Amino acid sequence: MDEKKDAEERKKLGILGGMGPEATGVLYDRITGHTIAEKDQDHLDIWIYSHAGLPDRTTCILRGEEERMREMLRADTEKMISLGCEYLAVPCNTCHYFGDVFREFPDITFIDMIGETAGTVSERGISTVGILATDGTLKAGLYHRALSDRGVKPVVPDEKNQKLLMSLIYDEVKKGARGEMEHFAPVVEYMKQAGCEAVILGCTELSVFAVNYSLKDAFYVDALDVLAKRCVELCGGTWRD
Question: Quick one: which of 34, 172, 198, 231 has the most CB atoms within 10 Å?
Answer without folding.
Answer: 231
